[in-house]
Every structure is written in C-alpha cells, then in structure tokens.
Please model this.
Amino acid sequence: MSGKPRDCRARVVAVRALAPDILEADLRVEDPVALEFDAGQWISVRLGPKTVRAYSIASAPRSGSVITLCADVVPGGVGSQWFRGLEPGSPVEFKGPLGGFVFTRADPRRPFFVAEEIGIVPIRAILADLYETGFGREAALVSWARDPGWLVYHGELNSLARRYPGFAYHPVVERPADGWAGETGSLIEAVERHAPPSEGHVGYVAGGEKTIHAVRDLLVGRGMERKAVKWEKFW
Model:
C-alpha cells in the first residue's frame, strides 16, 4: 500500500510526444529517493501560489524512483503550458501520492475498465502492475477515443492482450481513419456491447464527468451495485 502524501522534489529526465497533443514525461524522484504509491494514484503539482494541477501516474509502482506522467495538452491552460514547457533537467515539486482509484488485490471480483481518451492513464498503470505481478484473473477494458490518434497506449494494450488471454481489450473510435479495422461508435454503445454480467465484477471508469455518470448508470442498471463502480474524473 502507498504511504501518506508528502511534499516531494523531482527532476525531468525525458519528455516524449505520444501524439501531437499528448505528452509523456519521466521524472526522477530526488526527495524522497523513491515514491511509494499504488497503481492508479496521482500527484498534485504546484504551479503557482494558488494554482495546482493533478496528474495521474502512468507508470507502475515497481520503479518508484522514476515516475511517468502523461497529459492531454489541448486545453491550453496553465497546466497545459507547464507540461509543454517541461524538458530534461526541469525541476518539479509535487505532493503525493493521492487518490483512491486503485485495485485491491484482496477483492475477488473481476475488473471491468472503461477509459475515455486520456482517462486511460491510471488504468494503464493498474493493468501494467496487475499483469507484471502475476494477476491470474480475467479483466476487460473498453478504451474509447474520437479517432485512432487519441487511443493512447493502444499498441501496448494490444500486446498485453496477446500475451495474456484473460485480458480482453476493446478499442473503439468515433471517427475511424484509413486502415482502422476495429470497432466504431460511441463509448456508451461499446460499453453496452462489452459490459459483463454484474455479478462478480467491479467497474473502473476514467474520463469526463458526463461519461462517468452515463457508464455508472448503465452498469447499475444492469445490476451492479453503485458502490462497485469506482471512478476518476479528468474534466
């Protein structure tokens, strides 16, 4: 389990563009020397006296000395400007870890994940942690995006599904590009197609507030207990 939130200092060691408007940054933690956290948690970065921004940790906890953040910088606000300005050597002060969007291994239920675009970040961390540490149960993910370019970590998740037959990956786009052979349509349509029977399952939904409410209502309508649907709001 993660430790209590604390003030931390880190330094950027690498920045990558996963798509024109989606950036990933690796931070080497300097104080403390490693961050103890649970997959799915986030950190709070102070950008000014009264300005903070939350960023989910995209990496699994096994390498707490270097953590990876991933952000959609389309909004163009102060957080987007800060993330675009990161470069190797940049200092970063933050507080963490924070958040309860985590999978409890003692929970016998099978997880059903739903991600809306950048909401895939904490889910990617959870899945990486589970399958790299011997998770033996079935799990499923519906990952939706406006077009294939916004399906962050698509290649990695495809590879995960090939290596672990118990993991079902369902990528869905609203506007297919040339060469797209996968599912198309709305996120809710995809959830309706792939949502499992409520018994023995727990839901994890990450994305916009409207999506969270719609998916939660759909799953509850199918018999899942409301408290069995965990969520992480990005906008």
About this structure: Residues 11 and 138 are 37 Å apart (CA to CA). The radius of gyration is 17 Å.
